[in-house]
């Protein structure tokens, strides 16, 4: 069992930056270090889409739409995964969700709104 809690969303002007955090509460016997973690987002009226992922080896993968602007990282000592978002655009407006990659464990999301 894993519980995920995102934070760090908010309102920002285009060109600005935000850093999202996702803290994982992991049941005894499991280790956060072993999990690949991902960020997804869902814009109003659209389907949820992949944003970024980081493996336990710290190998990262990004969606083309955010490549070069967003950076995913993790701190295994804090059971936390981050999403640093720079050069934000209005089209980045969405609810951002943390996920244990390829699992049914999702956080409740944090809203990011980018104004033009």
Description:
The protein has 116 residues and is an all-beta fold. Helices cover 0% and strands 51% of the residues. It has no helices and 10 strands. It has strands at residues 2-7, 10-13, 18-26, 37-42, 49-54, 60-62, 70-75, 80-85, 94-100, 110-115. It has a 6-stranded mixed sheet, with no helix packed on it. It has a 4-stranded antiparallel sheet with strand order 1-3-8-7, with no helix packed on it. The model has no long low-confidence stretch (mean pLDDT 95).
Name the descriptors.
116 residues, mainly beta, 6-stranded mixed β-sheet, 4-stranded antiparallel β-sheet, 10 strands, 0% helix, globular
Main sheet record: 6 strands, mixed
- How many individual helices? 0
In the sheet with the most strands, the strands line up as 2-10-9-4-5-6
* Helix-strand topology string: EEEEEEEEEE
Could you give the distance between the termini?
40 Å
* Poorly predicted regions: none
Tell me the overall shape: globular
Work out the strand percent.
Answer: over 45%
| Helicity, as a percent range | under 10%
- Radius of gyration computed on alpha carbons: 13 Å
Tell me how many strands there are.
10
Structure classification = mainly beta
Mean pLDDT: 95
SSE map:
Blueprint: E1 2-7, E2 10-13, E3 18-26, E4 37-42, E5 49-54, E6 60-62, E7 70-75, E8 80-85, E9 94-100, E10 110-115
Parallel strand pairs: 2-10
Antiparallel strand pairs: 1-3, 3-8, 4-5, 4-9, 5-6, 7-8, 9-10
Could you provide a short overview of the structure?
It contains no helices and ten strands. It has 116 residues and is an all-beta fold.
């Amino acid at each position: 069992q894993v519980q995920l809690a995102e934070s760090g969303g908010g309102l920002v002007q285009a060109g600005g930056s935000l850093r999202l955090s996702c803290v994982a509460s992991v049941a005894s016997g499991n280790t956060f270090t072993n999990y690949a973690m991902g960020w997804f987002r869902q814009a109003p009226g659209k389907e949820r889409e992949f944003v970024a992922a980081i493996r336990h080896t710290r190998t990262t993968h990004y969606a083309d739409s955010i490549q070069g602007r967003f950076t995913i990282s993790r701190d295994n000592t804090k059971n936390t995964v981050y999403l640093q978002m720079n050069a934000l655009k209005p089209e980045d407006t969405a609810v951002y969700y943390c996920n244990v990659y390829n699992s049914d464990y999702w956080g409740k999301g944090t809203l990011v709104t980018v104004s033009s």
